[in-house]
Design brief:
Number of strands: 0
Strand content: under 5%
Number of domains: 2
Order of helices and strands: HHHHH
Distance between the termini: 16 Å
Radius of gyration: 14 Å
Largest sheet: none
Helix content: 55-70%
Structural class: mainly alpha
Number of helices: 5
């Protein structure tokens, strides 16, 4: 079994993946912000412990709170259709 303390932290892994794909620093900042919001919304549980129902609740909350743009609400629909990345973790 892998020692969790030895594994890189979630945001370090995210930043590494973003840089590997050569996304802009602004995109990295936005993505890490969304991941932080998602984790806090779910009571600081690690995303590996979460699944499609938690993603749906989070996106529904964002859409109903009215603090997101129309394009983000469109992404809600797309993410609901394809959350396989969560099951692969």
């Amino acid at each position: 079994m892998t020692n969790p303390a030895a594994a890189p932290r979630l945001l370090v892994q995210l930043r590494h993946a973003i840089r590997l794909h050569q996304y802009s620093p602004r995109t990295e900042e936005a993505y890490t912000g969304w991941v932080r919001r998602f984790v806090r919304f779910n009571g600081t549980r690690h995303p590996a412990e979460l699944g499609a129902p938690e993603v749906t609740r989070f996106l529904t909350h964002l859409a109903s709170a009215g603090r997101v743009s129309a394009s983000t609400r469109t992404h809600r629909y797309l993410v609901k259709r394809n959350v396989s990345f969560l099951e692969a973790a």
